[in-house]
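Our consortium's second objective concerns turning raw sequence data into structural hypotheses that experimental partners can test. To show how far this objective has progressed, the report includes one record in full. It was chosen at random from the queue rather than selected for favorable results. The single chain below, 70 residues long, was entered without modification.
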Amino acid sequence: TLVTDNCVQYFRSMNKLHNLALSGCNITDDALPFHDELASLPSLQLERTNVTQAGVDSLKNALPGCQVTR
């Protein structure tokens, strides 16, 4: 998939997203700082990415209302 760490910044302004499926995308923990703008996101899918478990744990702490799967 063509979504990379650099592309994730474009999701920042989409604060009404209900589901963000980034599974299979070439993203890493470097893409995760975008979470501040997506505080109301209910679901984030990160299967088959290069996001680490530490990155997922960080997201779960930052977005307690979001179901993050990896």
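The partners drew two points from this record. Helices lie at 53-62. The mean pLDDT is 88. Both points have been shared with the crystallography group to help prioritize constructs.
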